[in-house]
Amino acid sequence: MGWHGTTTDTRRLATPQTREREPSSPPSIFSPFLPFPTMSVSLALEREAAIKAVAAASRLCQGVFKKLIADAASRDSATQTKADQSPVTVADYGAQAVMCALIARDFPNDLIVGEEDSKDLASDEAQPMRTLLLDLVNTVLEPKITESELLAFIDRGNHTGGSTGRFWTMDPIDGTKGFLRGEQFAVCLALVDEGQVRLGVMGCPNLPLGDGSGQLGTMQVAVAGQGAFELPLFPADGAQVTERQIHAAAPAGTPLRFVESVEAAHSDHSDSGRVAKMLDITADPVRMDSQAKYASVARGDAAIYLRLPTRAGYEEKIWDHASGRLIVAEAGGQVTDVRGHALDFGQGRTLKNNIGVIATSSPELQEKTVAAVMEVLKPKNLW
C-alpha cells in the first residue's frame, strides 16, 4: 500500500468523487442514544487520500521528534509559544502543510478547517524556522514545494466551517505537550458534509497496535455506516497491510476503566473521580494526551473517556473531536456532551452548542455515565 514510502507523490490530481446526497440531515442536537445515521456512499477515494495524508504527516512528526525534539539543545529552534501559552512546533506546522497539500491536490475544491496558520512564521525572525520547516516537509512530499507554497498550504486551513457544504478538519498534532514529552499524540483528519462527520482517520505514532503484537504506531479509520478499523501506521516496507475491525465492547467481566486528559486544565480530575465512584469504578484512570483516548475506547482498552468542563463558556474545537467521535461511534460506542447532547459539528470551528465530552463503549453505559456526570456537575452552574 503505497502511502508508506519515503515520500508521498502529490502530482496526481484526482477528480472529486461524485457524491450522492442524503435526505436532509436531522437537527444537530438529537437524542444521543439513536444510532448514527448510515450513508449510501463509499467515500473510497477520500478514505484512501486521508490515510495517505495522515501516514505522511505522522512520518514527518516522528522525524521531527528524533532529529530535533529529543535533543534538548535543538528543541527551542523547533518550538514557538502561541498567544494562549500553548506550544506549537515545526511538526504542527509541517503536518498541517503536508495534509493540506495532499488533500488539496486530490480534492482541489474542498475547504479545510485546520488548527494552525502561518502568521507567526511570516516575520524575519521566523526565517530560520521557515527554512527548517520547508526542509522537513520536503522529506515526505514529492514533488518538493517552495516556501511560498508551504505557507499557502498551511493557510488552506482557514475555512470557518459550518452546517452546509463539505469540508475537511484536521489537527496536525493533537496533544503537542505529549509529543514534546515523547508520549501520546495524534494526527487527525476528518471529512464533514452538511454538518455531519462522514470520515475520520487518526494516526497515533506512540500507541501500540491493539493486536497484541506490541508494534508501535496505530491508525484507526472509520467511514459512517461502515465500521471502524485499525491498521499499522508504520508497516515494514513491502509488507502486506491488513485492516482489523475494532469494537468498543470489551469482553464480558472486564473491569471498567476510564481515560482522561493528562492536563488538569483540559478536564477536571476531581470531578472524574467522583463520577468513577458513582459508577463503582475502582481502577485508577489512564491519563494520556490527545485523541488517543478515543482510540483506546474504540478498541476496548477503556470503557469511558471523560473530558469534563473546567470553566463556563469554554468551547471545544471541532478538530479535537471529529475523527475520534466517528471512530468510537462506528466501533459501537457512544459520544455526547456532558448533558447527553450529540456533538454538533455544524456550528463553525468550535462545538459551541456543546459542553464537555463523554465517550463510552455502549449506549447503556453512556446513559449511566451522563446521569452521573450531570449529578456531579449540577452545583457548578456551568450552563
From TrEMBL:
Q: What is its EC number?
A: 3.1.3.7
Annotated region (Disordered) at 1-31
Q: Which GO terms describe its molecular function?
A: 3'(2'),5'-bisphosphate nucleotidase activity; metal ion binding
Checking CDD domains in the record gives:
PAP_phosphatase
Which coenzymes or cofactors are required?
Mg(2+)
Positions annotated to bind Mg(2+): 115, 171, 173-174, 320
Keyword Hydrolase in record: yes
UniProt lists the family membership as follows: Belongs to the inositol monophosphatase superfamily.
NCBIfam families, per database record: bisphos_HAL2
Please report the name of this protein according to its UniProt entry. 3'(2'),5'-bisphosphate nucleotidase
Q: Which organism is it from?
A: Fonticula alba
**Origin organism lineage:** Eukaryota, Rotosphaerida, Fonticulaceae, Fonticula
